[in-house]
From TrEMBL:
Region of interest called Disordered, as start-end residue ranges on this chain: 85-104, 125-146
Taxon lineage: Eukaryota, Fungi, Dikarya, Ascomycota, Pezizomycotina
Record bears the keyword Nucleotidyltransferase: no
Biological process, per Gene Ontology: fatty acid beta-oxidation
Name listed for the protein in its UniProt record: Mevalonyl-coenzyme A hydratase sidH
Organism: Penicillium diatomitis
């Protein structure tokens, strides 16, 4: 493990590894449960992404799943038990004062009168105007700490298999998405009487347009990777047809190929100026989150350009260009 400014957070539901010097790989590790994420998992992932943003040596994150699923969504069994047997007011009050982080319910949108919880405190880049989060049972960064995340550094989702519900909500807000050719994805919440309220719905319409977003959200259908790529949900589909043995996918072989491709792209990003990557990503996010083009450009210039031009990396990049050599980037201090 590389030396870090502070150790990575401990995780029970995900494995952390470092396939390259500046790349963090997070693998959801509940294969028997199709990597469904419960409240503890949301808290852990929120902390992991926050740690990645703060760790100077890390530049790109990758999220994938172990087994045959990327993430099949929320822990519906846990939600069902809660709705069928809601806690008393006394037990809610007692639990809210003792738990840390401040929520304990899987967030697939349990009625808000069941849990009154505060979101996890987050750094300024996660503090958008989210009026509803004061009573949300998930962190302000959303499902898996990703579906509403703003963050500083890019995250690539490597979809190795099934990707439904909250899993799809996460990929909609990811920076890049790579998927196995065997992957299936969708928002089946309406088939279970719940709603995709972790940030996917308003973001989905900006990605694939109103009619396609309506089709996906209202029918609850499952879509192939090829269909999702045509619609603009994916950057790339990785062919894994030769990983099928006797009609059954070799999960490890599929994962190795999809994650391998994601790592290649992560390294390509990490080889660029870390300062320029942060500011460029922020510019794209500002526009995608609904700010007008001119307002976003002005805000980017006011907030970041001076800091960028006063940094070491822009000087190194220009000097390397003149000297016709590869730049030696420094970890970002922005």
């Amino acid at each position: 493990m590389p030396p870090f400014a502070r150790p990575p957070p401990s995780t029970q539901y995900a494995q952390l590894s470092f396939p390259s010097t500046h790349v963090l790989l997070v693998t959801l590790n509940r294969p028997r449960d199709l990597n469904c994420i419960n409240s503890q998992g949301h808290a852990e992932l929120h902390d992991v992404w926050e740690w990645m943003d703060d760790e100077p040596s890390l530049r790109v994150g990758i999220l994938t799943g172990k087994g045959r699923a990327f993430c099949a969504g929320a822990d519906l069994k846990g939600i069902s038990r809660l709705i069928m047997n809601p806690p008393s007011r006394a037990s809610r009050s007692e639990s809210s004062s003792s738990r840390n982080p401040p929520f304990s319910v899987s967030p697939l949108l349990v009625p808000m009168n069941i849990v009154q919880a505060k979101p996890i405190e987050s750094p300024e880049w996660n503090n958008s105007a989210q009026a509803s989060t004061s009573k949300s049972p998930m962190p302000v960064s959303g499902f898996g700490g990703l579906s509403r995340r703003k963050g500083r550094k890019p995250i690539i989702c490597a979809i190795n298999g099934l990707c439904f519900g909250g899993g799809t909500e996460m990929i909609i807000n990811a920076d890049l998405v790579i998927a196995s050719s065997l992957a299936k994805m969708g928002l089946p919440e309406v088939k279970r009487g719940v709603v995709a309220l972790a940030g996917a719905l308003p973001r989905l319409i900006r990605t694939i347009g109103r009619q396609r977003a309506m089709e996906m959200a209202l029918t609850g259908r499952a879509y192939t990777a090829e269909q999702a790529e045509r619609w603009g949900l994916l950057n790339e589909v990785v062919s894994v047809g030769d990983c099928v043995v006797d009609g059954k996918p070799d999960d490890e072989a599929v994962s190795e190929r999809v994650v391998g491709r994601a790592v290649q792209i992560a390294i390509e990003i990490a080889e660029n100026s870390p300062d320029a990557v942060l500011v460029t990503r922020e510019g794209v996010k500002l526009g995608w989150e609904g700010i007008g083009a001119e307002e976003a450009t002005g805000l980017l210039n006011e907030t970041w350009v001076r800091r960028l031009y006063e940094g070491e990396n822009i000087k190194e990049g220009l000097k390397a260009f003149v000297e016709k050599r590869k730049p030696n980037w420094r970890d970002s201090k922005l």
